[in-house]
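Bit of a strange request maybe. I'm writing a small parser for structure token strings and I need a real example to test against, not something I typed by hand. Could someone generate the tokens for this chain?
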Amino acid sequence: AASALRNHPFLIRTASEARKLHGIGGSISSKIVEIVKTGTHRRVPMNSKQEKVISDFCGIYGVGRTIAAQLWDAGARSLGDLDADPIRFNLDKNQQLGLRYYQDLQERIPRDEVTVIHQLVLESARKIDPKLQVLAMGSHRRGQHSSSDIDFIVTRDTSDGIDHTGMIKKLWHALEARGIAHHNLTEMNDCMLHALCSLPVEGAKMRRVDFLGVPFDELPPALIYFTGNRYFNRSMRLKARHLGYRLNQRGLYKDICLDRNGAAITEGTRVECRTEKDIFDKLSVPWR
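Reply from user aminoacidic:
Good idea to test on real output. This should exercise your parser:
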């Protein structure tokens, strides 16, 4: 319902207009009309304190709305309550780290800081292996002035028969030695590592960093996928589907067999694409 409202080109003013949208029935449409007419809803004031506290809890790494509601039910009424007795509220290691660095992780990361961290990671990567590549993705690659977190693709040119296996672990230990890498939030493997890192200077803020291991032959589609944003990715996948292809972060596939709901029954054959532009060209999307 929220997505349908967000993407609707015109302001909804009546219940009948609301009910025409996918996923909206009588109950939701009446709430929409009340909000349109009054600017609020009768249930909002009643729950505002609880909702604000739950929203604050959702800002902790590893805490979603369900866990946040459970923390409220357990008697927590502030971040201070959780900080005072994390064991009582059954916070795991990652959630305790998220609480400790709550303010840092709530802040947007300036573009200049992402650039410096990227350069430091690149320096360490090149010392490990000159063919190791680390690419900054997400909002940074889209040219945004700030980022909510930092995504790095880690890959290696396989022309000499060696791939990126084991490289994320080596890179992590090198960054630890330089005072950049501090806490790994997931198990270390060749696919992905969620972590907390910072600039190696006194008083530097802790930042969320994801290291994404990508096979070299899957780099072009991965660049598209991890650059985003999600609306662009959704549009690209839809365009591919209309042309009889399937696109994901691993490749562009042809000869796909779909069921009546549009889900792929067979994997299909991966189309050779050496660059992002190759994929854009196959889908007749202008490259810029």
